[in-house]
């Protein structure tokens, strides 16, 4: 990298959960790079993988942020954002039905509802969107997307002809389902299910077993939810869809999207990179800086840094990563296409201080990257 022309650095990092958004990560890295090496040309494309921060990444890329009041996971009203540009909408399930809307220490694995996600989708359809990216990470729910479908016009009834209650457990009493009342605008709308997980709906690798405990489900709750979701799939006559990759995403909302919305499944980071103009920015880059709060084994399975690194490696562009905490070995990083990782814990061993002072520490890491680049 000793060309006469300036070295061009592309920052394409995800959020540092609990401390910095992807936009803030890019701002801090950019400031540190420019201070250490004023001759660098720095460009940023904040990225996400479909979970928390997906709408923010879209807004940073030029989408318009819009707000709407919807039903939260516990049934209370919450304000949720979506992003819209030229008929394409980005919907982040966590905005409506996410863990962020639960009080500290409170979980509701059996009763939390995705109704608000359906209301958010209805809002984007009413706003004229005919292409929708539905990012489904960070959910508080395990209802198979049943609440979402009801909000969009489906009827899910018990054996008395009454609507089943909210949440996944109530689906055990499902007797009939009528999807004919779903919003007719869906028929003319392309819906992409953007997720970083490809689990099926049911069984030991399914929505309840794998992700239920993260949402407060006990082993008894997991069994209850898995049986209720199996009943749901049976009544909908969609057993094959229950086995589809992504059906188990976000407590089974993937299944609801595949069956009820006619969605297609794609890895979230690929969808977001395409939508945010990453490929065009990559063509101008000599070095890519990616990262997220924790670079660990999970990173290698569909998280944003792995997607960024794979795309950069395909174009033979060097990649380094920044993170708060690093547990991946050098060979594992190399296999993922990441030449080197810089961790906040290299500068500050106290994790609490790393979280509290992530911004200034990232600027210092950026200075280290700039110096290594010049070496």
UniProtKB/TrEMBL annotation:
Q: Kindly give the Gene3D superfamilies that the UniProt entry links to this protein.
A: Glycerate kinase, domain 1 (3.40.50.10350), Glycerate kinase, domain 2 (3.90.1510.10)
Any GO BP annotation: organic acid phosphorylation
SUPFAM superfamilies on file: Glycerate kinase I
Q: Which residues cross the membrane?
A: none
Sorted alphabetically, which keywords does the UniProt record give?
A: Kinase, Transferase
Give the family, as the similarity comment puts it.
Belongs to the glycerate kinase type-1 family.
- Cite the PANTHER family for this sequence: GLYCERATE KINASE (PTHR21599:SF0)
What is this protein called in UniProt? Glycerate kinase
């Amino acid at each position: 990298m000793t060309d006469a022309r300036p070295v061009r650095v592309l920052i394409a990092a995800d959020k540092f959960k609990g401390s910095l958004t992807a936009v803030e990560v890019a701002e801090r890295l950019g400031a540190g790079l420019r201070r250490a090496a004023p001759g660098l040309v720095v460009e940023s494309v904040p990225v996400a993988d479909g979970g928390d921060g997906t709408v923010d990444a879209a807004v940073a890329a030029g989408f318009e942020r819009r707000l709407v009041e919807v039903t939260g996971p516990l049934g209370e009203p919450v304000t949720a954002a979506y992003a819209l540009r030229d008929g394409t909408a980005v919907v982040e399930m966590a905005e409506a039905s996410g863990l962020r809307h639960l009080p500290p220490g409170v979980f509701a694995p059996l009763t939390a509802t995705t109704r608000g996600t359906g209301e958010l989708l209805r809002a984007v359809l009413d706003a004229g969107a005919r292409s929708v990216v539905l990012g489904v990470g960070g959910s508080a729910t395990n209802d198979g997307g049943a609440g979402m479908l009801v909000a969009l016009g489906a009827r899910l009834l018990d054996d008395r002809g009454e609507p089943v209650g909210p949440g996944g457990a109530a689906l055990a009493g499902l007797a009939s389902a009528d999807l004919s009342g779903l919003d007719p605008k869906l028929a003319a709308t392309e819906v992409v299910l953007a997720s970083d997980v490809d689990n099926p709906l049911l069984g030991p690798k399914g929505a309840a077993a794998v992700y239920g405990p993260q949402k407060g489900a006990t082993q008894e709750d997991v069994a209850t939810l898995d049986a209720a979701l199996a009943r749901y799939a049976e009544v909908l006559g969609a057993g094959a869809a229950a086995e589809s990759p992504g059906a188990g995403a976000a407590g089974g909302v993937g299944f609801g999207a595949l069956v009820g919305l006619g969605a297609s499944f794609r890895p979230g980071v690929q969808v977001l990179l395409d939508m945010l103009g990453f490929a065009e920015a990559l063509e101008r880059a000599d070095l890519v800086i990616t990262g997220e709060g924790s670079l660990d084994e999970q990173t290698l399975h569909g998280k944003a840094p792995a997607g960024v690194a794979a795309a950069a490696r395909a174009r033979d562009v060097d990649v380094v990563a920044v993170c708060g905490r690093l547990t991946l070995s050098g060979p594992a990083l190399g296999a993922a296409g990441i030449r080197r990782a810089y961790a906040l814990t290299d500068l500050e061993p106290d994790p609490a201080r790393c979280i509290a002072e992530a911004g200034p520490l990232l600027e210092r890491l950026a200075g280290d990257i700039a110096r290594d680049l010049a070496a």
